[in-house]
Amino acid sequence: MNPSLWLLRSAARAPDAPALLTGTELESDYASFAYETGCLASGLTARGVGPGSRIGLFMSNSTDYLRVLYAIWMTGAAAIPVNSKLHPKEAAWLLSDAEAALCFVSEDLAEGLAEAKPPCGCVRVGGAEHATMTSYPPMETPADMGRDDLCWLFYTSGTTGKPKGVMISAGNVAAMTLSYFVDVEDVSQTGAILYSAPMSHGAGIYNFMFVIRGARHVVPASGGFDPAEIFALSRDLKEVSFFAAPTMVRRLIDHAEVAGETGEGIKTCVYAGGPMYLADILDAVDTLGPRFVQVYGQGECPMCITALSRHDVTDRSHPRWRERLASVGVAQTVNEVAILGKNGRAVAPGQTGEIAVRGPGVMPGYWNRPEATVETIRDGWLWTGDMGRMDQDGYVTMVDRSKDMIISGGSNVYPREVEEVLLIHPDVAEASVVGRPHPEWGEEVVAFIVPASGGALDPAALDAHCLDQIARFKRPKAYFALDALPKNNYGKVLKTDLRARLSET
Questions:
Q1: Do residues 438 and 409 lie in contact, with contact meaning Cβ atoms separated by under 8 Å?
Q2: What is the pLDDT of residue 277?
Q3: What's the DSSP call for residue 474?
């Protein structure tokens, strides 16, 4: 079904319920939210947007993000949420690959994207064209959207370094949404979701549950993650839920310990997006109480592979509570999870294999990447690329990543992508990128460089080169010159050796 129907139902049932807030300031109730969305949907329809269209959002966090999202869906089109941290050139590439018909861009990102010259038209949110598009009478009946129709086109990256568009259907969205109510938390009309992490990712995809319940959607005045602001807003608004990467949770704890915060007003913090250290979640519960739930997912099965419940996070009575707390929980209700060996068969409990998932939460495939789809989805199972083990009670513990992805501050960095940028610099003959442990961000990106003949390692020049090509958070934070990269007999770079060198420095 079309997700915009959820908005219209809440608007009909509770038109005066507060819907969109910036900080504590109310901008729209549900009647206004639905009306504003309908007007923009009519404006999009007048531009030829409809079923089969794909519309980009290259926007910083704001209440307009939700208005644009639901207007896109109301027309029957698919949304392409583009990470606002990306370099404009990267954003332009994604829009080109998705064959986007249009892209909405926030004021702070508009100039950079215009310089990158994306192939589609761009609408500056808050600008004259946007105002014209919202001046139409509201669209009253959403376009039909079936279970298998494309709803969300989310770009992730793979071992090739080239981003891939994950096709998320309306059925995938419905499965993930219903699983949240069962496996994470229920939501009431008096609840609120706080968007302190990027709305293009996990934080934004959790909007559906709160729209269904007619609850509040709150964007911090800062537009981002600030522990003091989060605690203050939670005290004022009450019954607040939000998504946070493990590094954000650590920052919350550190601030709470200094400021004497108890977490008043926070209902649930859903943490995901990277490894959570056992010591950190123990500190979190001791400091802020039973407010935490862990989920494990990936773009290909958004937010709904496994969950570690509030009970499991806080339980200290079970004989193996520490093992459970170090896990990513059990399979979410809508999906099956298995640990598979290379032969495609499930391994015995406690043995390590690749985590696989199947069910209605799993994507139908990658956009225009049939080979990658066949490689990733085999016999109905999505092979996640993450290695793990499952105990006899169904708790899954991740032990390694079969891909060399680096998770820094909750954002994914794929070494190959950074390496390819470094290798086009004239002073670089070879490059290999790995993650180095970081106390705040989890990992940080570092690069080992073999300088070109006659060249020298100039970190400032490499920094400037990277910042012209990729997002700042992907830029290496340190460069190490080597005469040669360590390799095996097949010429593959031994990244384990490089990581070992880091531990020796």
A1: no
A2: 77
A3: G
Instruction: Give the separation between CA 346 and CA 104, rounded to whole angstroms.
Output: 45
Please give the Cα distance from 449 to 428 (Å, whole number): 7
Nearest alpha carbon to residue 245 among 231, 265, 224, 219: 224
Question: What's the Cα-to-Cα distance from 90 to each of 103, 117, 218, 421, 469, rounded to whole Å?
Answer: 14, 11, 28, 12, 8
| CATH fold of 406-504 | GMP Synthetase; Chain A, domain 3 (3.30.300)
E-state strands within 279-351: 292-298, 301-308, 330-331, 336-340
* pLDDT tens sequence across 268-304: 999 997 768 788 899 999 999 999 999 999 999 999 9
Q: Which tokens sit at 88?
A: 């404009």
In this model, does residue 489 exceed pLDDT 60? no
Rg (CA), the chain: 23
216: exposed, middle or buried (Cβ count in 10 Å: 0-12, 13-18, 19+): buried
Query: pLDDT tens, 441-487?
Result: 889 999 999 998 877 899 999 999 999 999 999 999 999 999 999 98
Compute the distance between CA of residue 1 and CA of residue 72 in angstroms, rounded to an integer.
Answer: 14
Reported CATH class of domain 27-145: alpha beta
- Mean pLDDT across 118-123: 96
| CATH 3.30.300.30 domain residues, the chain | 406-504
pLDDT of residue 492 exceeding 70, the answer is no
Which residues of the chain form CATH 3.40.50.980? 27-145
